[in-house]
Amino acid sequence: MANKRDKTESDVTTHDGLNPYTIVKDLLKESVTRLELSDNIYEILKKPMRLFEVSLPVRMDNGEVQNFTGYRCQHIDILGPTKGGIRFHPAVTVDEVKALSIWMSLKSAILDLPLGGGKGGVIVEPGELSDRELEILSRTYIRKITPIIGPEKDIPAPDVNTTPEMMGWMIDEFDQLRGYNIPGMITGKPIIIGGSLGRLEATGRGVVLTIQEAAKVLEIDLSKATAAIQGFGNVGSMTAKFLDELGVKILAVTDAKGGIYKKDGLNIPELIKFVQEGNHASEYSEAESISNEEMFGLEVDILIPAAIENQITKDTAPTIKAKILAEAANGPTTPEGDAILEEKDIFVIPDILCNAGGVTVSYFEWVQNSMNYYWSEKEINQKLEEHMVFGFESIIKMRDKEKCRMRQAAYMVGVNHIVKALSARGWIKDSDLSSKE
Ligand code: NAD
Q1: Average pLDDT of the residues in 74-92
Q2: How far is the CA of 201 from the centre of ligand 1 (A)?
Q3: CB-CB neighbours of 198 under 10 Å
Q4: Which residue, of 216, 236, 313, 431, has the fewest CB within 10 Å?
Q5: Is 46 in contact with 429 (CB distance < 8 Å)?
Q6: 240 CA → ligand 1 middle, Å
Q7: Is the CB of residue 235 below 6 angstroms from any atom belonging to ligand 1?
Q8: Which domain does 160 fall in, by range?
Q9: Can you give the pLDDT at residue 435?
Q10: pLDDT digits (tens, 9 = 90+) for 94-106
């Protein structure tokens, strides 16, 4: 299991009160306006089509029953079944899963995947649960959302604090209920039961592919570049691995417990091994300690938030010196932080492009499951690269045409793609469309 951690320790995180659903709706509205589309399109896109809340009673090891709350949200399924991860975190809210489901729709649209957006969450601090309690909670969650998921409806995957091992428990529960083996019901599962080669690395690999494209635009030689990463879970550690392989020096890494810094660059393979052995990156002794705030202000070429929402704020953005901000996490930048990044002319690789490698290889996993025929890792990585480069180039083209920022351009590419499907299905009239082309 990747990034196995001591379950007695809690990954405490903070949210600064900014509502991600409000942020995503504002950005959708702005894209619809800039694209000169009618407000009817915003009316359709602003609300997820389905939101499911479930109660999850679990008998804990001490004999008491604790009733957790879970959600599954499906944004829109006009391009294909909805798809998106499941997050286990104490700060999960209804508005967070709504926002995350909309981001999933946009990612799939930008990368030309025949999928809609979905997302799930359970309000829990998984580090406080025993393995048995976590397994029961995972199985109970899947049982409760079974009526609305399935390979033709909505396909979950891992997200914050959920792992391939947990996907294995979840598919097993679903199969037992249905009475047969349905490999395409979930992605990010262990390879032996139908997982895809390259899925574990996919999000980080995709992040690095977009950094490589950005470096071409900015004429940065990555073999001489430096980086800092917030979050060293699946996405952060895999991003570090692929950057390290390109010769990028990773000077600092932080996680929920703290951070580490080394002026000449951290030994990334050793650090990944250390974390896989159950430690936090911040406990690694071969480096100095550093806070999140200090890490954001480091003199590095590339800064990569790969943890949670609302980290690049009005307080942290002014200190940033990086040339590229690669948003590996979902929603890491607040609107105020974003405005500061724009003033500072920092090249932002927006989350809905930057971390879309995960859903892309999840899509490949689902395709392989439905064919019951499996591709080589080389084939998967090639196809991933094609999709990531296609997404990056579409956004650059839109940015140059509309003279806007990368984030706005990304939203506009995504919205435009969804609008074509709305039109083809007769949800909107010609008068709702722009005369612009
Ligand atoms: P993970 O649970 O594997 O790792 C999260 C990491 O963030 C951990 O190292 C944790 O200690 C750290 N962290 C949490 N709060 C922090 C804080 N306040 N400060 C510093 N570090 C903190 O999760 P993940 O799967 O790597 O996901 C990270 C981000 O990437 C999330 O925003 C997720 O939605 C997004 N994402 C993940 C995938 C995927 O395939 N896993 C795909 C797309 C997007």
Answers
A1: 97
A2: 14
A3: 23
A4: 431
A5: no
A6: 13
A7: yes
A8: 49-184
A9: 60
A10: 999 999 999 999 9
69 touches 54 (CB < 8 A): yes
**112 and 215 together in one domain:** no
What is the DSSP-derived secondary structure letter of residue 193? G
Same domain, 270 and 133: no
Residue recorded with tokens 């470096």: 215
- Ligand 1, atom 31, residue with closest C-alpha: 329
Percentages of the chain per state (helix, strand, coil), in multiples of 5: 50, 15, 35
**Claim to verify: residue 278 and residue 180 sit in the same structural domain:** no
- In one-letter notation, the amino acid at residue 288 is E
Which of these three, 292, 319, 354, is where a domain ends?
Answer: 354
What's the gap in Å between 176 CA and the centre of ligand 1? 30
Does one domain contain both 217 and 336?
Answer: yes
Q: How do residues 388-398 score in pLDDT, each as one tens digit? A: 999 999 999 99
Report the domain count for the chain: 2
pTM over cut 0.70: yes
Examine the pLDDT at 12 and tell me if it is beyond 90: no
Identify which of 12, 117, 188, 43 has the alpha carbon closest to the alpha carbon of residue 330.
117
State whether 176 and 80 are in the same domain: yes
Across residues 219-245, what is the average pLDDT?
97
Helices (H) then strands (E): counts for the chain: 14, 12
| Tally of CB atoms within 10 A around 434 | 14
Residue type, 135: E
Sheet hosting strand 116-123, strand order edge to edge: 50-59, 65-74, 116-123, 82-89, 154-158
Residue 24: name the closest of 311, 310, 355 by CA: 310
Give the CATH number, domain containing residue 232.
Answer: 3.40.50.720
Residue 35 DSSP code: T
Q: Are 390 and 112 in contact (CB under 8 A)?
A: yes
Looking at residue 144, which CATH number applies to its domain? Answer: 3.40.50.10860
**What is the spatial distance between Cα 45 and Cα 55, in angstroms, rounded to a whole number?**
28
Rounded CA separation 235/233 (Å)? 6
Predicted confidence (pLDDT) at residue 20 exceeds the cutoff of 60: yes
Q: Is 237 in the pocket of ligand 1 (CB under 6 A)?
A: no
Of 354, 387, 404, which residue is a domain's last? 354
Closest to 227 in 3D by CA, of 211, 213, 216: 211
Query: Within this chain, do residues 65 and 111 fall inside the same structural domain, yes or no?
Result: yes
Pair (180, 246) in one structural domain: no
- Catalytic: 119? yes
C-alpha dihedral sign at 368, 374, 375, 377:
positive
Written as one string, the DSSP assignment of 234-250 is: HHHHHHHHHHHHTT-EE
Q: What is the pLDDT of residue 43?
A: 97
